[in-house]
């Protein structure tokens, strides 16, 4: 019989997944944080990342629809409000659209999700479907990329402020807010996974779910790099430089 790892050893296994596979290791992040992205490459990132941001509350709603435990529902539902907003909190989606305006995009164009790369759409939709269809343990474990998010948000704030004229407290408010939201979410999610992954098979399932989520994030940056970094290969139907600009709306 397989013996499950101790709680500490299993947590270390999950953290190693982030150290080896999180998308802060992707070359596109080096370009973005180092100020080496052109304005259009930044816009492409904003447009495609919006699709991911907009589907997070849909993913969480799909998860909640399957949860019978009121305590788990109470703990999880704040994630939807963090993105969609609530009284006194404009929400992460609105903050992302403010970033879109700051980089010169029409926020209505970005919110329409027109021009999103096919690979971005496939990866994000696969994540929503994963959370809707797999076990609750796997669904919660897939959210644990948040373990690694505060570090990347802090690095992104520093890099964007240093290298891009559009970057200021208003345009980067999404990332600043996540510095306080993500630790709360991940503390609950990590504890829940460690409590419920109580067999070797369940630990393997949880670890594989986290790997799947890192693949979702990595594939989005692969798509961006392929489409918009030389030699650019923009697929049919995807955003092209000059489209969806705020000036085009006024003209």
TrEMBL record:
Catalytic activity: 6-(2-amino-2-carboxyethyl)-7,8-dioxo-1,2,3,4,7,8-hexahydroquinoline-2,4-dicarboxylate + 3 O2 = pyrroloquinoline quinone + 2 H2O2 + 2 H2O + H(+)
One of the GO biological process terms: pyrroloquinoline quinone biosynthetic process
Thiaminase-2/PQQC domain sequence ranges: 12-222
Gene3D superfamilies: Heme oxygenase-like (1.20.910.10)
GO MF terms held by the record: pyrroloquinoline-quinone synthase activity
Transmembrane regions listed in the UniProt entry: none
EC number annotated for this UniProt entry: 1.3.3.11
Pathway in which the depicted protein is active: Cofactor biosynthesis; pyrroloquinoline quinone biosynthesis
Highest taxon of source: Bacteria
InterPro entries cross-referenced by the UniProt entry: Haem_Oase-like_multi-hlx (IPR016084), PqqC (IPR011845), PqqC-like (IPR039068), Thiaminase-2/PQQC (IPR004305)
Keywords: Oxidoreductase, PQQ biosynthesis
Pfam family, one: TENA_THI-4
UniProt keyword annotation of Metal-binding present: no
Family classification: Belongs to the PqqC family.
HAMAP family: PQQ_syn_PqqC
Function: Ring cyclization and eight-electron oxidation of 3a-(2-amino-2-carboxyethyl)-4,5-dioxo-4,5,6,7,8,9-hexahydroquinoline-7,9-dicarboxylic-acid to PQQ.
Protein name: Pyrroloquinoline-quinone synthase
């Amino acid at each position: 019989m397989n013996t499950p790892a101790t709680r500490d050893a299993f947590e270390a296994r999950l953290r190693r997944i982030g150290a080896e596979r999180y998308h802060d290791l992707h070359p596109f992040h080096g370009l973005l944080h180092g100020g080496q992205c052109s304005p259009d490459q930044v816009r492409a990132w904003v447009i495609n990342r919006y699709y991911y941001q907009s589907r997070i509350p849909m993913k969480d709603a799909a998860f909640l629809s399957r949860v019978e435990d009121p305590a788990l529902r109470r703990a999880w539902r704040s994630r939807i409000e963090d993105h969609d907003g609530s009284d006194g909190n404009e929400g992460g989606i609105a903050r992302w659209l403010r970033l879109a305006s700051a980089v010169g995009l029409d926020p209505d164009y970005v919110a329409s999700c027109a021009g999103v790369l096919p690979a971005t759409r496939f990866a994000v939709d696969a994540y929503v479907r994963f959370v809707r269809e797999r076990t609750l343990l796997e669904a919660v474990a897939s959210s644990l990329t948040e373990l690694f998010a505060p570090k990347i948000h802090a690095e992104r704030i520093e890099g964007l402020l240093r290298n891009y004229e559009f970057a200021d407290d208003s345009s980067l408010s999404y990332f600043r807010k996540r510095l306080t939201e993500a630790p709360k979410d991940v503390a609950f999610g990590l504890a829940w996974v460690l409590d419920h992954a109580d067999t070797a098979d369940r630990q393997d399932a949880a670890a594989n779910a986290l790997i799947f989520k890192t693949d979702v994030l990595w594939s989005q940056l692969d798509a961006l790099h392929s489409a918009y970094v030389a030699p650019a290969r923009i697929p049919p139907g995807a955003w092209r430089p000059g489209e969806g600009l705020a000036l085009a709306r006024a003209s």
